[in-house]
Amino acid sequence: xxxxxxxxxxxxxxxxxxxxxxxxxxxxxxxxxxxxxxxxxxxxxxxxxxxxxxxxxxxxxxxxxxxxxxxxxxxxxxxxxxxxxxxxxxxxxxxxxxxxxxxxxxxxxxxxxxxxxxxxxxxxxxxxxxxxxxxxxxxxxxxxxxxxxxxxxxxxxxxxxxxxxxxx
Length: 168
Prior knowledge:
The protein is mainly α.
């Protein structure tokens, strides 16, 4: 059960780019929660999963002696879901998802791209957490901060686009 959880339904066992595969698996799940529940539910679910994941990762690392196994992708779910809970500032009905004017789909795509960018490049505090924080806090922490950075950046870019659109 723990390996199923840590690898996000075994998606982290992908031989190529397990982090990206884990993020791609978590993306539609997060979008469904946004569409049928709301961003607060997604945020709180992510907090709960993150707290559980830290404990499970600590136990895994204690037993295996391996820190930040590349197959563990529950951290990608947390980062992507945090980005989604911050970015799509517009609540939309499921039938309006593909309407580009409301910005929902644009922000979802931007959140994905920016999260992967921040998670891979690990700029600033993201890299510091990844390098220095021990155990599950280190594994989860960098992705959580990368998710917040991606969500805020996505929302800011959308707002800049809207401002530029009114100026033109």
